[in-house]
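Sample A.
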Amino acid sequence: MIASLRGKILFKKPGEVVIEAGGVGYRALMAERSWNNLGPKGSEVFVFTYLVVREDAMQLFAFETWEEREIFSVLIGVSGIGPKTALGILSQLSLDELVQALVTENLNLLTSINGIGKKTAQRLVVELKDKLSVESGAAVQVAAADSHPSGGSKLQEVIEALVALGYPQLTAARAAQAAYRALGEEAEVQQLIKEALKQTRNLEVNS
């Protein structure tokens, strides 16, 4: 199996790249978050890859990190989640955000992803909640919250409070996560909400 590629970018368009390695051009699909971090055409690049083999085709997928590749492989193991849907999930949510949504069972955030309905979101939570909270090194803070008796529920309360104030689910989730990291698991919900409100302003400035 092709596990990684190092070479020159021959061609790129949103979500797709062709990398020349050893005189061969490899076409691969990528999540938009990772694709956005690629250099321009002609630059050198290193990516991890995952080859999906089907009866009628073989498709290569490229990833910025090994962790992203591994979570992709877990996602496509869930019934109803194909490779393109998995890429869509990784395009719209960071690894931290995905694990947070699973840990807190935030179906509203999961169903905000294009192509993910309520039943699929529930299936993702049931099958991946524990698995991703353990495997995702990027989500150490979220996993730690889940190990605390009230960590996951605190995050959910903060998210719900921000949504009630009119913030979109994704903004609320990102702000809640940032607040939890800033204040730690011992912070009270009201403290986290105040910090999350500050974080929403930072998100607006950086968006």
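Sample B.
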Amino acid sequence: MSDSRTPPARPATIRTVPMPADANANGDIFGGWVLAQMDIAGGVVAAERAKGRVATVAIDRMTFVRPISVGDVVSVYAEVVKVGRTSMTVKLETFVHRRDQAEAAHLLVTEGTFVYVALDQRKRPRPV
């Protein structure tokens, strides 16, 4: 895994900025906060693909490459990479733009693979 990748050419699924309340005692953003942002982005693209409600059923892989700081602009890119009968695998990459850097460099900070299942009105798995 290389951390020198550039963000995908498509728009970010979500963009946000972490606040001081999202930081741990060392001043870095909690991993759980990052994971939540990635899950939101993954759920957006999975729900679009499923044309309805989805639920997260697994995180197959999650890698923290470097820390995120308060004030960084966080962009999460999500892409459905596999579709099964009721489930979808979503690749997620999170990049940041450091607010204290003049250049427009975007740095890879996390990546992962999440699995979502399509749900019917009774919250049971349904075909995608």
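B remarks: The CA atoms of residues 17 and 65 lie 18 Å apart. The mean pLDDT is 93.
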